[in-house]
Amino acid sequence: xxxxxxxxxxxxxxxxxxxxxxxxxxxxxxxxxxxxxxxxxxxxxxxxxxxxxxxxxxxxxxxxxxxxxxxxxxxxxxxxxxxxxxxxxxxxxxxxxxxxxxxxxxxxxxxxxxxxxxxxxxxxxxxxxxxxxxxxxxxxxxxxxxxxxxxxxxxxxxxxxxxxxxxxxxxxxxxxxxxxxxxxxxxxxxxxxxxxxxxxxxxxxxxxxxxxxxxxxxxxxxxxxxxxxxxxxxxxxxxxxxxxxxxxxxxxxxxxxxxxxxxxxxxxxxxxxxxxxxxxxxxxxxxxxxxxxxxxxxxxxxxxxxxxxxxxxxxxxxxxxxxxxxxxxxxxxxxxxxxxxxxxxxxxxxxxxxxxxxxxxxxxxxxxxxxxxxxxxxxxxxxxxxxxxxxxxxxxxxxxxxxxxxxxxxxxxxxxxxxxxxxxxxxxxxxxxxxxxxxxxxxxxxxxxxxxxxxxxxxxxxxxxxxxxxxxxxxxxxxxxxxxxxxxxxxxxxxxxxxxxxxxxxxxxxxxxxxxxxxxxxxxxxxxxxxxxxxxxxxxxxxxxxxxxxxxxxxxxxxxxxxxxxxxxxxxxxxxxxxxxxxxxxxxxxxxxxxxxxxxxxxxxxxxxxxxxxxxxxxxxxxxxxxxxxxxxxxxxxxxxxxxxxxxxxxxxxxxxxxxxxxxxxxxxxxxxxxxxxxxxxxxxxxxxxxxxxxxxxxxxxxxxxxxxxxxxxxxxxxxxxxxxxx
Length: 727
Fold this sequence. Notes:
This protein is mainly α and 727 residues long. The chain is built from 29 helices and nine strands. A hairpin with a 3-residue loop joins strand 1 and strand 2. The protein starts with a strand and ends with a helix.
């Protein structure tokens, strides 16, 4: 059974044949490897396959490091496939497994004896291969080391991770700088055109309008169709004609435009950087991206230092990564440790309610730990330089997608919500939202009838005809008889809409709001009695609002009655300022928009009702505790009074004879400071007399004891004398 040795050199592959078939089993192999002559006696060069160029040498070395058999190496091994029962000693176990997969009748060998043999071969390589001179071999080794290091650095995993770390860091810094610049532009240009800040909310659109318009006097002849929708463009141009801003010079405008141009450039670069980060995350960590999203996944990688460091971390570490300060503070103060860190911002954690967020964060961290290891250590992952032969993007992210679906089902099971369809984004409140087209939201218009508004007013200025109609509707309230049938169609429509808005979708909502609404109804009744004259009878309930707005958020067609301001001390109880000024973010007059606003209003009523109920419950509990303390105090006072009455009945006459109060007499009697004469009249003994009496008693006791001791001593002396005489 012949034995061959594969030697990889910087110049090429060398195939050596052993003259001793039992070479690897020799005990003196270590001693033999120290001498070049003895190594040459044991091994003979069979074939030397030189590399064509330095580039091919680097490619062959890279393949050997990864445990792959190249075409050049396979052709070299074909030269010994005719040998019967041949064995091949190799320097790497990965390479041995790869050669074994070729199906050649060769048995690869790798053990401790092979490693010892390779030490001798590398030391005496010029003696075994005559084509390699020692000086030439040293230069080839140095060049090979430089080329291989450069190649590995070019395709290293750390470089891909560095790109993600730098991108997410720059993205966060861009957001801060962009917000600072945008606020400065609005404040600076607001001195010249302050009304535009209330109309345009988007920072990018605001900066582009400045670059398009310049001075506000040019707004009427500027074409803003590419920047703003038609309604907002009309509002901007109308506001520019009546603007109250100060005048600025051309030099001031040039500086403002320069800053606005910076905002536009930063915004465009941020969008490009965000898309770059998304593509990098999808390519390097697809499973992590599927579970956490691009931003959260990138922040975790940046916090850990690299994808490999994140893959080495356990799930418990990933869960609290980013909350180290809170963790060590909790450990130091022996409080509860945090449940989540950066993973809290993941969409899956946001879907769960407060009581389930910690549980979902723990499950998501466990799945993320597995996904990171798949991304970092799989055959197509970043560790293998992205060599994915025939692996699609769906197959790469299959594990992350399946894990996300499982977590969503678990959330639905915990929350009692139906499972949403795939590809539908879910808000934290559980409502599915399809991704829509980005559009600029128009600013809310100020309603002079109230501090808030319904949210569906158009931003453009209303025509003069509509203004006249609104002025005609704002008349004083007239008395409406109960059997009157002179209501207009508009009034009935508004009343019906207000009635529909006040309905609850669930039956239990009316019961929950009955108690909370009693105080508001009483306040409204008081306000009406103060505002309406005695001769007037009543006003329909749906048309009355303390804030001047109907229940449906619109100004009703019938005249409204304004109550006393909530800021005055004599005003009745009214809803909070937050409830009064609340307005829906859903705009439009379509049927779907109205339904959405109605649902949103209903949910808000439910939330406010629960909040009022909890506050009322707290007040009642506090009042109950206060009443309980008061009752206990009264009971104690009554008990003390009864005790005083009993003491007065028992000691009243005696205390009067002794000239003391009942309480003092009782206390002195317990201490033994009261003496009685033959007639039973009590007399109070002062502390001074009592002290003298005690001293006299103590002195008498001391005198008696001293006399007794004296007698005992005299008796003892007499006994001793008698005893001595007897002796």
